[in-house]
């Protein structure tokens, strides 16, 4: 039971980073500027590095021939535990930045808590990853401010992205049974505690960027328990194609 | 209006104690972005411990068409190199 919970929690941690990393990877060669292209794919690689650590630990728990790759590549859509936010498409650069920012602030708060996890592996991964994620927050929040408080056009595009993506933010803080177990056992973070800090931080950055949060938002939930948006199938089609078409292929 | 971001020159210090060395240039809209871009473009493989950026337009360069008068007169001034001193034998490494 405990092992299954821990395995499940590692997937919760890894899947958000993996799907966001995949979304950023789609931008490789398509970034708005060469320098931005490299910055976004660097972030993607940071996230994939973290995923590898989580899934190696998960594979060791699962046994039965499981590997980090089989966990990443060979699950069905409803077995992925990432949130709706990270599977949203790269509609334009404003959406890329707002999605990144909404996730980064959560990710930073989460890792700070996980650094004192009772699970040694999770604590070690969090301690290594927090430096990367501190940089991600710096990157996305300066872009949020630069474009939000930029020209009329950039402001409007950013506000549009905020209006569209904000509804996916609070799913990050709605705990599943596994996340409740993780918080109670000291393995994971208590999301209820992090939520007010998150909201305060987001508000502060948004004010600075002269952007507003939409009122009367109908928040969307469900992906963490496997009910994904239509986007997820397309992401997995790209992501899993090679392994499904040519099983066990390596390069 | 020029839609290109300005060019910045990047200087990296590879280790504490060494000087910053010019390593390349990049595009960025402002100084903060130039530092972030320099970090992402030029220090991905642990090349540096410190980064300087300066907008290229702030650098004044010598004019290559004047290289003759600027640099060639130094060519026959060998006495400017400290190679004519006789050193005592006790001083081994100088």
**Subunit arrangement of the protein:** heterodimer
Total DSSP E strands of chain B: 3
What is the CATH superfamily label of chain A? Ferritin, core subunit, four-helix bundle
Alpha plus pi helix count of chain B:
2
Low-confidence stretches of chain B: none
- From the alpha carbons, calculate the radius of gyration of chain A and give it in angstroms: 18 Å
Q: Architecture of the domain at 1-59 in chain B in CATH?
A: Roll
Structural class of chain B: alpha+beta
Helix/strand order of chain B: EEHEH
| Helix proportion range of chain B | 10-25%
Number of strands of chain A: 0
The residue fraction in helices of chain A comes out at 55-70%
> Main sheet of chain A, how many strands, which sense, barrel?
none
> Outline of chain B, from the CA principal axes?
flat
Gyration radius from CA atoms of chain B, angstroms: 20 Å
Q: Which segments of chain A are poorly predicted (pLDDT under 50) over 5 or more consecutive residues?
A: none
CATH superfamily of the domain at 1-59 in chain B: Phenylacetic acid degradation B
Strand content of chain B: 15-25%
What is the element string of chain A, with H for helices and E for strands?
HHHHHHHHHH
């Amino acid at each position: 039971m405990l092992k299954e919970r821990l395995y499940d929690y590692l997937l919760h941690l890894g899947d958000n980073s993996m799907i966001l990393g995949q979304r950023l990877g789609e931008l490789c060669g398509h970034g708005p500027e060469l320098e931005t292209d490299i910055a976004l794919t660097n972030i993607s690689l940071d996230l994939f590095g973290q995923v590898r650590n989580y899934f190696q630990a998960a594979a060791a728990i699962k046994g039965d021939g499981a590997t980090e790759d089989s966990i990443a590549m060979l699950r069905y859509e409803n077995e992925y535990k990432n949130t709706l936010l990270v599977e949203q498409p790269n509609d334009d650069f404003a959406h890329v930045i707002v999605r990144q920012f909404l996730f980064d602030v959560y990710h930073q708060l989460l890792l700070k808590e996980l650094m004192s996890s009772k699970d040694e592996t999770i604590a070690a991964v969090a301690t290594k990853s927090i430096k990367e994620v501190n940089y991600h927050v710096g990157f996305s929040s300066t872009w949020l401010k630069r474009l939000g408080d930029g020209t009329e056009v950039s402001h409007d595009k950013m506000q549009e992205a905020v209006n569209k993506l904000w509804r996916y933010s609070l799913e990050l803080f709605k705990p599943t049974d596994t996340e409740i177990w993780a918080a109670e056992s000291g393995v994971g973070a208590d999301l209820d505690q992090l939520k007010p800090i998150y909201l305060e931080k987001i508000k502060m950055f948004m004010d600075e960027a002269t952007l507003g949060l939409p009122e009367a938002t109908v928040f969307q939930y469900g992906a963490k328990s496997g009910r994904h948006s239509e986007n997820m199938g397309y992401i997995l089609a790209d992501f899993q194609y090679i392994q499904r078409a040519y099983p066990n292929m390596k390069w | 209006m020029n839609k290109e971001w300005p060019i910045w020159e990047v200087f990296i210090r590879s280790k504490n104690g060494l000087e910053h060395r010019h390593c390349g240039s990049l595009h960025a809209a402002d100084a903060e972005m130039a530092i972030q871009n320099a970090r992402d473009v030029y220090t991905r493989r642990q090349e540096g411990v410190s980064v300087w950026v300066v907008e290229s337009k702030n650098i004044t360069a010598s004019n290559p068409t004047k290289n003759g008068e600027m640099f060639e007169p130094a060519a026959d001034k060998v006495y400017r190199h400290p190679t004519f001193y006789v050193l005592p034998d006790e001083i081994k490494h100088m």
